[in-house]
Recover the amino acids of this structure.
């Protein structure tokens, strides 16, 4: 099995010049948490996540580990005010540029290993073609949901029982 067999093809993406408000609209209209950011040729340059937008909205002092231990933080209205102030920023200001890319021919065993070792805000791996253009996205959920079809019929199980 290969990455191309488990990826979600043709993922929704956004351009780096789009506004943060455009990304927020995507989040509101979709159950997804991450959207690839692609250049004009469709090549990934990063990923915008709900967490990366929130990161720019929470005051810097609130990310201090001591503050987290104290269970304190800024009032939620200040977070929303900060978020509203960021809506006109370009998406390129808030993206996570550390994204893992694989080709569709990458074995799923290697993809699974990459997924459990991801760093940063995203929990996805982007799949690109030979020219580096985005063709799909893979999450751990994609791997799990496709497990039955990847395994094929089990002994004593008919094709129609799936």
């Amino acid at each position: 099995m290969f990455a191309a067999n488990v990826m979600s093809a043709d993922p929704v993406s956004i351009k780096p010049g789009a506004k943060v408000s455009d990304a927020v609209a995507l989040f509101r209209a979709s159950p997804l948490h991450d959207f690839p950011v692609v250049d004009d040729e469709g090549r990934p340059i990063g990923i915008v996540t709900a967490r990366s937008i929130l990161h720019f909205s929470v005051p810097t002092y609130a990310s201090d580990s001591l503050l987290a231990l104290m269970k304190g933080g800024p009032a939620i209205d200040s977070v929303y005010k900060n978020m509203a102030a960021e809506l006109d920023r370009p998406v390129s200001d808030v993206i996570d540029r550390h994204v893992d890319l694989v080709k569709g021919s990458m074995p799923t065993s290697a993809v699974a290993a990459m997924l459990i070792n991801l760093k940063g805000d995203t929990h996805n791996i982007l799949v690109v073609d030979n020219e580096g253009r985005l063709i799909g996205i893979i999450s751990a959920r994609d791997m799990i949901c496709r497990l039955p079809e990847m395994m094929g019929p089990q002994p004593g199980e008919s094709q129609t029982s799936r």
The chain has one domain: 3-151. The longest strand covers residues 44-49.
